[in-house]
Structure formats: C-alpha cells, structure tokens
Design brief:
Chain lengths: 296, 326, 240, 417
Amino acid sequence: MMTLELILQGLVMGVFYAMMGIGLTLIFGILKVVYFAHGESFMVGAYTYALIAALLGLPLPIALASAVVVGALLAVIVERLLIRPLYEKFGDWQQMRDEYAIIVTFGLSLFLINAANQFLGPYPYHGPALTDIARFQFGDIIIGGHRLVAGLLGLLILGGALWFIQRSFWGKQIRAVAQNRFGASIAGIDTRRVSALVFMLSGGLAALSGALLVPLFHAQPDVGMVPALKSFVIVVLGGMGSPIGAIIGGLILGVLESFGAFYVSYAYRDTFAFVILIAVLLLRPQGLFGERAREV
Amino acid sequence: MNASHLRTRREFLVSLVFLAAVAAVPLFVTSGYLLGIVIVAMYYALLAIAWNLLAGYTGQFSLAPTAFAMIGAYGTGMASYHFGLPPAVGVPIAILVSAVIGMGLGRIVVPLRGPYLALTTIAFAEIVRHVARNAHEYTRGDFGMSVPLISSDRVMAFYLMLALLVAVQVGLYFLLRSHAGLYLQAIRDDETAAAGRGINVIFWKTVAFTVSGAICGFAGAMYVHFSGLASPDIGHIFETGLVLASVVIGGIGTMIGPLVGGFIVQFAAEGFREFGLRHMLVFAAMVILFVRFFRQGLWGLVKNAWDRLFGQGAARPARQVKEAGE
Amino acid sequence: MSLLRFENVHKAFGGLKALDGVSISLEAGCMTGLIGPNGSGKTTLLNVLSGNLAPDQGDVIFDGRSIVGLQPSAIARRGVGRMFQITRLFRRLSTLDNLVTSGCAFGLSFHDALDRAERLIEELELTAVHDEDGGNLSGGQQKLLEFGSVFMGAPKIAVLDEPFAAIHPHMREVMVRFIRERHAEGHGFLIVSHDLPVVLGLTDDLIAMNAGQVVARGDADTVLHDPLVIEAYLGETAVS
Amino acid sequence: MKRVSPVAGALMPTTSKRIAGIAAAALLTAGLASPVAAEDGPIPIGLSLTQSPPGAVIQGEEVLRGHLIARDIINEEGVLDREIELHVQDSQGIPERGRSAVERLIERVGVVALSGQHQSSVCLAEIDVANRHNIPYMNTNCWSDDVRAAGYPQVFNPNIYNSRVAEAMGEAIAQLEGIESIHALAENTDWGIGQAEELGKYLAEHAPDIAYRHDLLDREAEDFTPVVQRIRSDQPDMVVAIMLPPAAYILMNQLAEQGVVPSDDTWLFEGGGLFSYPDFWDNVRDSAVNTIFFDLYHPEMPLSAFGERVRDEYVERYDGTPSRLVFQAADSLLLIAEAIRIAGSTDGDAMIEALQGIELEGSRGVITFSDEPGVLYQQWVDTPYVTFQVTELDQALEDTVFVSAPGVEVNIEALAR
C-alpha cells in the first residue's frame, strides 16, 4: 500500500516538474541553450497567485490566470531584451552563445530573486488551497486535497500544452524552428514570433506550476531555484527538446524521488536528481526519448 | 613570433604590472578591512583564472569552479578539523584531492559539449554541495567547520595569497606559451578539427580540467585558512555566478581579463554595500548589462580604445576582412 | 602491399545502410577520386577512416595495422590527413597559429613548425592574412588554410572531401598545383568530389559509390561508362 | 588604550599617504570612503544581519525592528549626552560576508560595538573580528554552543543556547503522560542537529522508556511528503519539529495535509520558536492547532517597563505581535548603551569590563553574564523561556494556553488534545 501511495505522491510532484520542464525543453529546442532564469518564472507565478488570491481576495481562477499572464509576460520581455541577440546576430555571437546564454540568464535569475526580496519582502506568502477538502483517502492511501486537485488540473493543462505543441498550427511552427531555424525562416515562418511564443508558453507554464504549488511550498524570493534545477534534470532525462520526454521525465523523477527519500535518505532527497542527471548524460546523452545528434 | 604568443605575452605583461600594483597595496593601506577585501578579490581572481583556462581557452563551459574551491576548502578543513593537520599538510592534500577529482570529472565529461557539459557540471557542483551540507558527521553540515587561520597577520595572509596568484599566473603563462596553449585553443575552436590534426583531445581536455580543478582547490584551501571557516556557502550557485561574471566583465579568453575581473566583482560587491539593501540587485543588473552590451569585456574595450588611439590596428579592421570574405 | 584497405565495412544509421560492405584498396602514393551521388556513403566512409565513426562491421587496415577503434587524433598522427566538407579550422587562432598548432601536434618542434608554416603560407598565397584570425578569412582562404594544416604533418594519404566546392577559380588553381606537387613528392591522395572535371584533371583512377556500395573502380573511361554509375547518376547529371 | 583608527591613519594628510589614499579610493569605488565618527557626535553601533538571500531574511527583519525601537527609546535620554546611531550591514547569512561586514563597520564606520547577528555560522566568523579589534560583540540570536565555547571576552550572549533549549523541551516532554515514542525532525544545521541530539540525550537520562529517533531534513527542500508518510505509518506519540521557516512552515502544513496532526494520537512539539514570527498564521493553518510551542516570549511572561515599551512600540509601528527576536534585539542594544554609560566612554576594554559585571533590567528580566568557561561563558544563564499550546486557528499569542516556564510545573490539565 505504501508503494502505491509513494507512486501516487511521486506522480503528482512529477506533474509540476513536467510543467516546468516542458517550457525549458522547448526553449532548448529552438535555441539550443540552457535558460537559467526559468525558476524565476515559477517564483513570479507563485507570488502572483498568493498576492492576488490571499491579499486582494479575488477568486482563485482569476488568481491562477493572472499568474499565467504575468509569468508569460515576464518571459516575453526577457526574450525581447536579452535572448533575441542569440538568434538575430551571427558571427561573433555564435562563438560564445552558450556562455552568453548562461551568464545573462544567470544574472537575470540573481536580479529577479533580489528584486523580489527588495520589493515583496522576505516573508513567505502562502496561497489559498484550491479546495476546502483537507485530504482524500482511498483505503490506506492519503493525499492532500489541494495536492490532488492541483495535480489533476496540472495534468489537464499538460495535455493541452502537448496537444498545442504536437497538433496545432503554431506548435508545428515551433517544431519546424527547433529542427532547423534557417530552413524554417526560408519557408516563411516568422522565427521571432515563434521564439516569443515559446517563451510565453514556457513562462506561463512555469508560473502556473508555481501558482499551483504555492499552497504547498509558499512563495519566497528563491523558491524557484530547486524546481529550476529539477527541470534541468528532467529535460535531460527526457531528451533535450522533446516535450513528451519532459513530461515522462518529470513523472519518472517525481516517483524516483518519492522512493529515494522514503527508503534511502530524507536529507539527500534533492541530491538524487543530480545523480540521475549525470548518469543519464554519461550513459544515454540523448535522454530517454531524444534522438542522437549526428556529428561531423 | 606568432600571434597567439604575442597576445599572450602582451596580456601577461599587463597582468604583471597589475599584480605589481596589487603587491604595493599593503605599503599604503594598513586597514585590515581593505586588505581583507583585496585578499578575497584575489580568491575570486584565482577562481576566475582557473575557470577561464577551461572556458576561455579550452571551450569547456564548466559550472563547477566553486565546487572545486569547496573540495579544496573541505580537503584542508577536514584534515585540520578531524586530524589536526596544519595548513602546510592540509593545503597540499586539498590540491591533490581537487586535482584528482578534476581529472576524474574531466575524463568523464570528455564526450559532452555545450549545454550538456554545463548541466553535468552544475549537477556535479550541486552534489558536492549537498554532500557537504548533509554529511554532518564528516563536514559539520550547513554551518561548516572552523579552520585555523594561516596567519593572524593580515599582511602576511595578503602576501601568501598574492604569491599564489602570481605563481598561478606565471605557470599559466608558460602553459599557454608552450604548444599546450595552442592545443587547448584549437580544441576550443573546433574539437573535430583538432583531432583531425593529431591533437589528443581527450588528454588535453582532461589536463585542462585537472589544472583548473587544482587551482580552484588551492584557492579554496587558502581562502578558508584566511576566513577561518569551511562552509557549503563557498560552493553556492551564486558564487559560481560571481566567478563567471568576473571572467566576462574582465574579458574571456585573455590572461588579464579574469584577474582584473575578479577584483572588479569583489570591489563592486563591497562598494554596492553603500546602496544598502540593493547591492545584490545593482550587481546583478551590472552583470546583465555587461554581458549584453560589452561582451569583449573590459580588456576588449581597453584594447579597442588603444588601437583606435595609436592606430596599429586601424590599418586592418578585422570586421572588414570578415565581411569581404563572406 | 597496399597502404589502405577497407575490408567489407558496414555502417547503418537506424534502418539506413550508409555503408553496405565496402571493400577498397589504395596503394601508397595513390591519386584516387571517389565519386558518387549525394547520400551514396562517401562522407560516411571518410568518417570511418578518420575514426569519427566506428564501423558496425568490417575492418580498416592502414599501413599494415587495423585502425578501427583508434582515436581520430591517433589515426591522424599515423598519416591519414583529413579535410572536411565544411571547412574546419581554429577560428580564433591566426593563420600562422593554425598551421603551427597542427605542426606541433604532428610532432614537429615549435621552430620547425614555424619554418614550415611560413613556407606554406607563401606557397598557398596566404601572406596577406598571415596574422588574421582563421574565422575572419574568406571561404577560399579557409579552405587553403585547412589544406596547409593537413600538410604540416607528413600524411601518407590526404583525404579531401569536396575541396573545390564554391571557391574562387584562382584559389582552385593554387590548390591543384599544390596537390600535384605533393603527389610528386610521394603523398597519396583520396579526393572526394562532385566536380568531375577537376577530379579528372587530377587523376585517372576513380572509385564510384552508390547506396553504400562500391559500384565501379578503374580508369575514368571505364568508370564513367559503367552502367551502374550511369544509373546512379541518372537525373543527377547536373552535378554541382 | 590605544585604538588608532587605521582608516584615519591611511588618510592622514602627508603627501605619500594622500597619494595612497587617492590610489585606494581609485582602486575601490568612491563610495567606500566615509568619515570616522567625531568624539561628540552620535555613538555609532554596528548591526550585521541578514537582509537578502540566501540567509534568513525574516529573522533579520525582526532583529532590525527590535534595534530600531530600542534605539529610539534609548535616544530619548541619550547616552553620555550623545545619541545612538545604528549602522546596518547585510551579511546575507554568509559567514564571509558577515566577516567583511563587521570589518567594514569597525574600520570604515568606526563602530564601538556590534550587535544583531542571528545566524550561528555567521556569528562564528564575526566573533573572530570582534576579538581581533577588541570590540564588544552582542550575540543577539546565535544559539550555537560554539559561540560561547570560543571563550572570547568580547562576546556576550543575552539569548538562549542550544543545550538549554533541548533541556527545556525535554523537561516539558518528560512530564507529559502517555508518551512512548517520539520522532524528531531537525534541520541539517548545528542548531537543528545539536538540539535533536541533546534532546535525545536528555530523554535517555530522564525518560528512558520513551523510544526516540530523529531524522535530519534539508532546510532548502520544499517537499517533505516522504518523511511525513513515514511518520504516518509509524504513528509516534509525538513529533518534534526543530526547523526554521520557511522549511518549518512547509513541514507543518504537510504534516496536517497527511492528517498526522492535529490528531488524538500524536502531539506536535515545535522547537524553533516559530509562533512569534509575524507571518506565522499567514503560512501555517491546521497543523498549529494543539501544537506545543517552545519560545522565549509569551505575554503571560512578566515584562519590565522597558519590555512593555518595546512591545507597545512594535504593535504601533508594525501592527503585529512582537517575536522573541524583537526583545532579544532590544536587550542587545540596551546592554550596549548601559555598558557605555557605566564605562563612561566607548573604549572597548572599559565596555567589556562593564558588561562582565552588569546587572541590567532587560525586557524580560534582569540580565547578568556568567563567567563559567564553556557553553555558559558570558551567557545570560537565566534566559526566560516558555512553552505554550495553541488551541484555535488564528489564535493570538496572548490567548494561547500557557504550559510551562522555568520553575513552573507543566500544566497538564490545561492541555487540549
């Protein structure tokens, strides 16, 4: 019974990880760089939900929607100001894109964390739960009310996002740019708009993930750091650039952590992810679902 | 003389002038506080130089420089805390341990490039930090271990750190001047081509990781014997950010850039205390602006200004050659 | 005894058989052209030779020893000089340093490398960009520089993948002259190109590949009139 | 005592020194240079506390508030006809930043005493500097025994220390009835680990029948569900939480989420003094009900006139109930002011001597410092503490049920379950 419960709890966490990871994997897909400020979209979403719902007392759906909008907006602004040179300028910029991308998003992350600390204060904010039901009980399995509701909602949204990426017109454009930016631009795809869209999507999803978790985690300036690092892991696990891989990677990581913490060590709970990351990169660098890049 | 050597020698000479100026600081400044700032600046400069060897010269974008500083710090820290060994024994142990771990990591990540390398090394850094924080019986956990001071005299500590910095800079100069310097830069520019020209890529990458790890470990070990505490904060992800920022602000892939960058970042962090609460905010903004608009770093700006003023480069602007060629 | 022998080499990517039992033998000091339509497996064969790809099956014997499983750098030092289809050089090193680096890696002392590099720069007409970063050179200059880099060592066989694609006619002349002189000195060449006229101007010994297999080998007359080769090129006669 | 300011020395107007000064100023940013306090101007006191991540910013804010309130109260009368002036530096919870912050305060600002630190790791780095410069160092809230055991005469500890907290909790637990098993959850710091181990030792000695185990949790973690599941399946009679926010809030909420507390079967004992954090009820809900809290302040605890002033000022300025940190901070500054008054000067040795013999009515009792070496060195041994129980959601501190205090038996009847 405990096994089932650990799986269930792990899957729920996995849904939130996946919501973070899917955005990161899309960004990697179209730009081939690591985006370090992803955790701050999560943080912004968490704050927006907590502030709007708890302080202004607005209805929860509005709070959730605002979180998505603010997260998406932030990501789009960042894309316009800091990310665009990565694909607009060639030559010199090409040679140190990795460096530029990591340092600029790293600096951005530092900036946003300290801005939150400065303007919102250090106190953690608690968001109201989506349901009044404290917990659901199925036989011996207990799961928190909000956790289950948020998890199911997250699952629904993940499904929607996946549909959008795989089936919709825009999603096809995203995948075209991911496969070949130059080719896509020749085929008449506005790669700028696609990039903006990808950042909007990933910022919105990360913010939603933060909003759904804030009743469990509390909003504070550096709340996004752990989820961001985890989302790197699942993106690698699932294969960089693969949205389905990110979802499955997220679920796998959630379950592995659940078991690892329960049976191996509570204190090292957040360490497992990194061990998994290194193992995957060394044994199967293309991830579980990625395609091996052909070199030379 | 070939161009790489000329460039390296010019940068090395400028860095020697800079180091000479630093060496003169205690003659004029008696404040322990100011000397302390300069000592910490030298620590960051060392990490920046070591990271620049990997990222700037070899093209290996590792995110683990402070993890190696931590390995060095805990190497000597645990030797002292658990076995009562003096720094004279602890520091060499720290260098050895960080060099060996650097070699192991370097060998393991040989096939990885770009983002994959960045993620593997950040995962490695986080594992090291988590172990230091949670293996309480050995590391004393989050609060760290008290470590004896290498010298209660600030000026002494200052010159010890400076000696290390000079030694590293000179050593690096000879490394870069030898064929190794050319090999590392060749690997940075094109690994496949390097291998095709007979350069043993695996070997030289591993060398770069080993040397870089050893320098970071050495710096970390010296640093804790100055600050008196080996704590997991040494390896915090923000610290890595400071190291990268030092290199980028100073000028990546140069001998002088990281050295000066380390000083600038530390002084800026201290100077911005004047802004009270906002110092980290201002600092982060500065990092973004620099990397966004002055990507060649300060050394690049200085060099361009010099060329423009004194003409030597005006005859052949690199940009035009390139445009003509494409 | 031959210098280089491919023995029944197979290589597949997923379901695609890029090399399907290739056997080729080349003599020391050869001057051989390797032709075939796009996707016929030429570049894959070169990648197997230079150690950038491991064959699924079969062996590559160079200078009497198998080189399968060796590092690319080790194969290069044994005397396989490789030029890539997309020019590969050290973009942030100067022209001279590009050559010196290769020279050192091939075992020359620094001073010898410097001497030879200066001579090659003159020979390849790169004097004007002597101190320019490799990345700032024009496409043709980069090609010449890569060429020079390979000959900083003493390749027993130089493998050139599309060496004449899209470069200035004058540079092509420089290159052809360079190849002839080196060949006369005893270096072997394996030239992969679509550009039949240039290949034919250099050599009469051709190998034709299609669909991962060698379909013909012999002098130009024989190969170009081989029905399999004609079939392979059908619809592709307008070779780029 | 000779205490020439090194900064003043460096800026002395001889030509070479002036050049050096210019060089130093050019080397550093211009902002670094600042004047040394005049002899008859305000008395500069340095505060090093956490104002930005990764440190405990919430604690830093409370400590700052306590100091600001105390400063204003003290300045109504002044000290030696001078005012107290606070200089705040952000230590970010990083030992190295703390060390550099207090060096800056001493050498650039010329502060005569230091106060405010609330994170043990930072304290440990800072006291070396205070020791080297012979500047009195008021430890506002570092609980680590090592801060005392270092034996520096400059360091005074008007707050509680780890082993005492564990003893106090153990005393209260041992008097409860029907407790057979305890599962303690401690954060992975000296503070958490120290308390969990000390508590185990105390119980092994005084209540050997109780089965006690403890687990360490990572204070950076955000999900504790697995350990909560473990507790749910083990069903201990009591869970002891030795964590600080925000991890502590998350842990408590997740205990409630799984239905471990509040329940008829399991007590929750909170050992981190959480209840008096101003954001406690914003962040913790059901799990707080019927929880027993350890703290250093409770309204039923007698306050001095000074303590009442501090409390009233806090309520007026910040619209909330002050936490223990506010009183500890106010006491710290009051002690410094009193030491200056007794010493009649801001000389380090004179102040230290004054503090060693001090007997001062602080906010919550008369403060004296022991001279016993070890963990009691220059420690206010009789630091008041209290345990109380929360019985309702959103309960105010004054409505909670007083359980015990030093010398007071546990009020078992009062306890709800």
